[in-house]
């Protein structure tokens, strides 16, 4: 039934509207009962400024970074938000124009400069954006807001003030890093980024940042590369948004969405380019999967291949009896999904939104199973012997292992996306439940819980209500994987007086426990975390 929900009123457009930051927190109005054990803060990132003066940002990933916080203390729920004081934001505020080129918006040269200084700035190369609108994560005792470039921004998780910009290039050999690091329970951080590998060819480095040590030195100073994955095309790295990690293995899925480095490194200012202009699709490679041993940093010499898809979010990865189980939110085909995420598309009327989404790659949550060792004698056979999955891995005579997935969730133009799990206890381990944001033709209109073993789903959905990524918070004395709550920021424009609220659901059955309503709109947020008090 949830597949038939429509949005003719277009309330989702409010997700992409500029808002003001707060000078001090406001108190949310609570209905229902907030669990007494829920103590801490929900921190989330997203765009909050969608134009500078008369100059618009064009893409979903261009608006200036706004950091949000809902606190849970003694039954009160204060809400606070501040713009991250990135170079991109500060310079835009100072010059009253877009100064730094963003993902899908070209920043025109300074109109006040004369022709000579503009000519010389052509040779400066691209000023890379530090607009940290995607996620926030801990390194040691510090918290960083991030995007996908080499710049991350340290923020104060209490006041939301910006502390400093950090350039990862100064510490480790990467050109950028994803907004989806893995953080282990001891505080070790793993991430992946493109880099220049051996003999001028492209590669991908896995970096490791150790936990805070007794010497109290900033762990970023101790960052190191632990393994390098090769690139399918020495001149064109694939776009990488996340990766898989288990206690013993690292999984990197190399998709056909490629970055054309010649375009990326050429002078953008000569032809008014932005990041989106540098993407292209390889229509023949399909998808390559790579596995490395985490502790030894050794690549497994197995060529895993499957048909083309886009990948942004890994759900979870785990080991079982000589196999790696890799659960993914995929989008079928090689065309880049981000082509459909221009603000003009997302702000269109409902019929037009649907029309666009019909043409886009179709979403599907999938399970792939990768055998960790192969025997030539098994050529032609399916190597997967696990009883509980229909996923296959067939060894071909050219030593390629061809993968076919088990489908975990599939609905026409309905995505199970922004997946979250009980990460602290089940990340990298066998698990049962994932929580996701349901996208209906790219419009987020429901929260979904998925049992990855039985495919059973539970849904929270209300008319004209637009939730965000659900974040699972475990009960402190949890006995079961889904003992806890799920937190999501929901906007409900035009439904009653309160335009937005924080929603608390019982993770068992996705039923409402409480909500904390605010009198102001909250634009779209992408990712975040719950910081326990």
Automatic annotation (TrEMBL):
Pfam families: RPE65 (PF03055). It comes from the Eukaryota. Binds 1 Fe(2+) ion per subunit. Fe cation binds at residues 180, 241, 313, 527. Its EC number is 3.1.1.64, 5.3.3.22. Keywords: Cell membrane, Hydrolase, Iron, Isomerase, Lipoprotein, Membrane, Metal-binding, Palmitate, Sensory transduction, Vision. InterPro entries: Carotenoid_Oase. Its cofactor is Fe(2+). It is found in: Cell membrane. GO terms for biological process: retinal metabolic process; visual perception; zeaxanthin biosynthetic process. Signal peptide: none annotated. It is a lipid-anchor. GO terms for cellular component: plasma membrane. It catalyses: an all-trans-retinyl ester + H2O = 11-cis-retinol + a fatty acid + H(+); all-trans-retinyl hexadecanoate + H2O = 11-cis-retinol + hexadecanoate + H(+); lutein = (3R,3'S)-zeaxanthin. One of its GO terms (molecular function) is beta-carotene 15,15'-dioxygenase activity. Belongs to the carotenoid oxygenase family. This is Retinoid isomerohydrolase. It comes from Crypturellus undulatus. The lineage of its organism: Eukaryota, Metazoa, Chordata, Craniata, Vertebrata.
